[in-house]
Amino acid sequence: MQRSASVLTPQEFIAKWSDVTLKETAAYQEHFIDLCRMLGQPTPAEADAHGAWFTFQKGATKTTGDPGFADVWMRGHFAWEYKGKHKDLNAAYQQLLQYREALENPPLLVVSDFERFEIHTNFTNTPKQVYRFTLAELDRAENLAILRALFTEPERLRPARTVESVTEEAAERFARLALALQDRGVESHQAAHFLVQVLFCLFAEDVGLLPNKVFSRLLEFARRRPDLFAPKVEELFAAMRDGGVVGFEEIPRFDGGLFAEIAVVPLTPEEIATLAEAAQLDWASIEPAIIGTLFERSLDPARRAQLGAHYTGRADIERVVEPVVMTPLRRRWAEVRARAEQIAAARRAAQERGDYRARRRREEELAKLLFGFQEELAAVRILDPACGSGNFLYVALAKLKDLEKEVVAFGAANGLSQMLPRVVPTQLYGLEINAYARELTQAIVWIGYLQWMTANGFQVTRDPVLAPMETIRLQDALLDRTDPAGPREAEWPRADFIIGNPPFLGGKRLRTELGDAYVDDLFAVYAGRVPREADLCCYFFEKARAEIAAGRAKRAGLLATNSIRGGANRRVLERIKQSGDIFMAWDDEPWVLDGAAVRISIVGFDDGSEQERALDGLPVATINADLTASIDITKARRLPENAGIAFMGDTKGGPFDIPGDLARKMLAAPLNPNGRSNSDVVRPWVNGLDVVRRPRDMWIIDFGVDMPLEQAALYELPFEHVERHVLPVRQKNNRQSYRERWWLHVEPRPGMRQALAGLSRFIGTARVATHRIFVWLDSRTLPDSQIIVFAREDDYFFGVLHSRAHEVWALRMGTWLGAGNDPRYTPTTTFETFPFPWPPGQEPVDDPRVEAIAAAARELHCLRERWLNPEGASEAELKRRTLTTLYNQRPAWLVQAHARLDRAVWAAYGWDDPDPATVDAETILARLLALNLARAGATAGTSESARVPPTR
Predict the structure, then answer these.
(1) How far apart are CA 494 and CA 910, in angstroms?
(2) CA–CA separation, 278 and 286 (whole Å)
(3) With CB atoms 3.0 to 4.6 Å apart as the test, which of 204, 390, 530, 706 could cross-link to 210 if both were Cys?
(4) DSSP alpha helices (H): ranges in 641-749?
(5) CA distance 498 to 556
(6) At 75, is the secondary structure helix, strand, or coil?
(7) Is 383 helix (H, G, I), strand (E, B) or coil?
(8) pLDDT tens across 195-211, in order?
(9) Which ranges of 158-281 does DSSP label H, i.e. alpha helix?
(10) Distance between alpha carbon 500 and the CA centroid of its chain, in Å?
(11) Do 126 and 162 meet the contact criterion of CB atoms below 8 Å apart?
């Protein structure tokens, strides 16, 4: 690369250009060439004789359609715009913002009037940073380093901080202020409303909507005169509401409802200082996709502890917005653009041959096409029925604006100079039950919109700056209870796309969190559509499905806990596939909910018209209701022969459980007044921990299914314990029957007790566990609800349950729970659909295949027991020996024992694979599903041929 031989020192450069009064056009090229000589860099002509990557007067069409030129351009480095001395450098910067896409989005945008230099960073996902210095300061080492980096190493000027880190710091400052207001007893809604207004002011002044840093200057004044803080801020807010003058600054009218209610909270000097420090941050660079969540946490005392926790970032939200909202719009734009390019080519051809009438027709045709598509974008309506702080709506708006900008830029490049952005925030619709969250959503969406407009060089409407967002409604999304006597389904506004993150509230917590009256209404209104056991988010899925089926919406993309794939929750996905189809899903993804790690599923669905489907980011032919793309196991039916065997254990509903030493005291007590021992009502008790870890020597007081209070009281010590410890708890229970029958367990499972009666032992497995492990339990034991029990005492049955065939089936048919994503076993969908080699109760007597399974099962059990309880082991050693530890380690002897068991089970099914461990899960599922469907469609006397499915 040739460099100029003539070199200027910085001092010579300063001396020469200090007295120059030439106009911009007469001086800028020589100024830049002198700059190259001073820095020892080649000039554009020396470096690039053809002007392909480094040149003066780089042609670039503005987004407005007007032709333009960047004064200097270097690909991958910078674009540079000059202005005459003392001219408006911000106007020059706005020009570059309109050029930047046409200039391949350079990382640095430079403006200069010969006396001043401003280098604006333009790196992705970083806050904007501006390096400023004057001609007189040019010879300072740090300023020369900045100029050299423009040519040689632009990455050196990348801001060290990210947009996310700036946003987190901004939220942290507000959290300190919110906490101070709470400690002073400021009413929470007043504080929240005031701080949302302050948030908007800080943003507005940093993007130039409030002139000359008027709010920051007000704060600096208030640090000296804290007594005038409230009246001065009230004066500013009133001017922002109506338009007016504050001091010598003209304030535009913002309107939009944000300042309709003005109730300024007086601040202490310390609080004013905190706010003044916050004002120094770069509020123009905050990320609207996360500031709403963080701000909401800072203002809600119940959620403030989550401030340091992770949040849902923009990239995560885009996984919903892109496939659900943007894919069909981009597909439509591709069609429009292809036609537009044909018209533009015909227009150029007409111009070349001098046919101006044909050229004019083509221009009109192109304008009609592009303006028509822009009209389509401006008519798009997007709904978030549980909008929270508005992050999903903001990301959707930003994506929609980005696509509109592509259209505007294409039109500008092809001679249409009248195209201006038309996509606006009022195309977004939201439902929210929290008044503060609704207000925050409105502010965040407007901040995001104004940020996009200013960052992309478009003018913002000035009178008023904001418009009211009545599209964000304060409304319950599920129930309309305006008539208490006749609750009905809530009405959603029409929308093309429904997106969002509905509340993750488990079915078992509905009454606790929402109250009996609301839940009773919910069950009544959605009867037959959503199972009563389903999580709350399932109601949003059903509502969105119904909107699509009724033609009131086109597509939806919603989040749910990953348990939506199974159990009662899956019913809503099955209904979606009946009236439409699932076209996009992420079946099991890590997520953050209220600062806590959870596992979620993302589901996109429509009326069935979408032909392309993707599961976990990969194309698939179909997506089943359990969010798989292979064997549709959801077709499996519950088998009558499996009924009455598997049960959920007892739900106690209070501290009925007691440690072993107390139980033994009760058992050793004299006979009670009824002449009975306490052993009638004091039993060994196990829950999931006793299975996966070690027995804890826990017992339980159990008065059975329906023992009257008078009889229970005759067992003196157990009854006194329950009266002292359980009664106070049960008196607070929401259910009247639980309060009235306080001495009995809330769900004693009479069916389970009857099935286990007469057995010497039974099988148990932890309902939720990392490994699907089965154990033998003594008949005296009462299993807790965290145990699934099987009313069988034979080794054969134990062996089939512990086989790989049953494990594969259970993992697919069950659901998953918690951040650890442990599988959950259910007695209905998991067990009652599982086809045993023979229907339970119909196993052939003396069949060697049955005995082979039983023998392998006995051996597995004995080996495990010897490992768990070796002779001479210390207490510390025994504590470390648990079944979870064993199955985590999987020693060779355990693998071999399971292999022997699996070979025996394979033989019973008639499967001839040499090694069951090598058979893939899909093959196993296909065989079991075929057997399930054969059983479900056959009579109780199923023939051998129907019993055994094909082996391949």
Answers:
(1) 56
(2) 12
(3) 204
(4) 660-668, 688-692, 709-712, 716-725, 727-730, 736-740
(5) 4
(6) coil
(7) strand
(8) 889 989 988 898 888 98
(9) 163-183, 188-206, 214-224, 229-242, 269-279
(10) 8
(11) yes
Phi-psi region of 562 (alpha: psi -120 to 50; beta: other; left: phi over 0): alpha
Kindly report which listed range (16-20, 286-290, 355-359, 865-869) carries the lowest average pLDDT score.
286-290
> What whole-number percentage of the chain has pLDDT above 70?
94
The answer to whether the peptide bond before residue 827 is cis (omega within 30 degrees of 0) is no
Our CA dihedral for 449, 455, 458, 459, rounded to 10 degrees, sits at 70
Q: Are 560 and 601 in contact (CB under 8 A)?
A: yes
Measured between alpha carbons, how far is residue 365 from residues 330, 336, 340, 343, 375 in Å?
21, 12, 9, 7, 15
Distance from C-alpha of 343 to C-alpha of 411, rounded to nearest angstrom: 12
Q: Which among 737, 765, 871 has a CA at the least distance from the CA of 827?
A: 765
Two tokens, residue 138: 């040019």
Structure tokens, 504: 């993750």
Q: Give CA–CA dist 430/418, Å, rounded.
A: 32
Per-residue model confidence as pLDDT tens digits over 85-130:
889 898 899 888 888 888 889 999 999 999 999 999 998 878 888 9
DSSP 649: -
Tokens 């069916």 belong to residue: 751
Instruction: Give the separation between CA 716 and CA 704, rounded to whole angstroms.
Output: 16
The residue whose two tokens read 């209404």 is: 521
What CATH number belongs to 479-629? 3.40.50.150
Determine whether domain 10-157 maps to CATH 3.90.1570.
Answer: yes
Which tokens sit at 164?
A: 């996310």
Structure-block tokens of residue 924:
């196993």
User: Using alpha carbons only, how large is the chain's radius of gyration in Å?
Assistant: 36
Q: Which two tokens stand for residue 301?
A: 């005392």
Domain boundaries, the chain: 10-157, 163-306, 314-474, 479-629, 634-645+792-952, 652-761
Residues 6+ apart with CB under 8 A from 761: 776, 777, 778, 779, 793
For strands 249-251 and 78-82, give the pairing.
unpaired
**Which residues are within 8 A (CB) of 938 and not within 5 positions of it... i.e. 6 or more apart?**
946
Tokens of 108: 């640095």
